[in-house]
Amino acid sequence: MNIHKSGARYSAIVGIGENLRRLVKETGEEYLFLNRGVNAVVPIDLTEVIPLIDFNAPAIQVYPPNSGAPNLKEAVNRVYFHNKTDTDLISVSGGSMSALDQIFTMLDVEKVLLPSFYWGAYANICRIRKMPFDVYHTIEELEKRLPELRNSAVVICDPNNPVGNKLSDDDVLEVVRKLSDNGTVVIYDSPYRRVFYDEDDDMYVKLTELPDVLIVESFSKCVGLSGQRIGFVWSDDPEFIREFNLRILYVHNGVNGFAQQLVYQLLTSEAGRKAVKVFREKTTEDIRKNIEYLRETGILAEEFYKNSEPKGIFAIANKSFDELLEKKIGSVPLDFFTRDNKEKAKKYARLCVSVPHEKVREFFSRF
């Protein structure tokens, strides 16, 4: 049959994982999987949380509201926005990827600007939706390009995937403010932030004070529930939210009711908040130790962290994919995440540093 082809590609990272599993099976030896993009220090322990959910309740068994369960949106408002926004401006989404797909489809802009090192899904969604995209190399560069960005959208991911560099919040807010004043839409997609920041964090509150800002959040990273495919989107534009909710109706018919009630318990109940606290503490502790170890051993590619700090679930190694694989370490070549300087980028690899610290020491000591 005749079809409209998107021009997008399946993630090559999936292929890397399949090859690693094949090598494990063929050799019988252990490999360290640092190619994945999920927190893998410890799973979140839901033992005391699941009994709190009534599986016979309408919230689980009946179609959920298009914009999300009211109790979850109220919890999101409290935890992420300090009760300073309107829950009608929050829409529960099926994770970041589907939210970004809807956003890229909805925005009437000339192009989307991505960081020069970007999550591959950004580019593939643009390709599928026929949205032109360009890149920027620093946030300072965005200020110099303001005139050409008046009818564009800019994606800010901080801490960044794949680099894992964390910029100054003040610097980011200043640039977002200038873009907002310029009439440029800002898509603040930073699903790794709340792995490292607690409820006192007021970044989202400050962002709500600026027009033409979209906040995209996922519970995949901050509470370790990538399998539930749930997150939320915030916008101060009621028309945007109405259209977003309408598309959720006709694409998903609402977001999974169980996932919504599970996240609600994690955000509000004593058992849920305890589980999240333990998960984050253990995860961030080993991430910190892993980055320190890579830095001490000279494996961290320091050139990627000028005017920033390595603070995320990813880090860049000054070793190639092949060099790491020789030591039985899985990674992703950095050139997978950029359209520029691909030959230079092949000399580096992206590592997921959210794994047990003892495993990082064991495998990287082979260098």
Describe the model.
This protein is an alpha/beta fold. It folds into two domains: 12-44 and 273-364, Alpha-Beta Complex (Aspartate Aminotransferase, domain 1), CATH 3.90.1150.10; 50-271, Type I PLP-dependent aspartate aminotransferase-like (Major domain) (Aspartate Aminotransferase, domain 2, 3-Layer(aba) Sandwich). Helix content is 43%, strand content 14%. It contains 16 helices and 14 strands. It has helices spanning 12-27, 58-61, 70-81, 95-106, 120-128, 139-144, 169-181, 193-196, 203-207, 219-222, 238-251, 257-268, 270-296, 321-326, 342-345, 357-364; strands at residues 32-33, 90-93, 112-115, 133-136, 153-156, 165-166, 185-189, 213-218, 231-235, 309-310, 314-317, 329-330, 332-333, 349-352. α3 (70-81) crosses α12, α4 crosses α5 and α13 (270-296) packs parallel to α16. It starts with 11 loop residues before the first helix and ends with a helix. The model has no long low-confidence stretch (mean pLDDT 95).
Which helices and strands, and how do they pair?
Blueprint: H1 12-27, E1 32-33, H2 58-61, H3 70-81, E2 90-93, H4 95-106, E3 112-115, H5 120-128, E4 133-136, H6 139-144, E5 153-156, E6 165-166, H7 169-181, E7 185-189, H8 193-196, H9 203-207, E8 213-218, H10 219-222, E9 231-235, H11 238-251, H12 257-268, H13 270-296, E10 309-310, E11 314-317, H14 321-326, E12 329-330, E13 332-333, H15 342-345, E14 349-352, H16 357-364
Parallel strand pairs: 1-12, 3-4, 3-5, 5-7, 7-8
Antiparallel strand pairs: 2-9, 6-10, 8-9, 11-14, 13-14
Helix pairs in contact: 3-12, 4-5, 12-13, 13-16
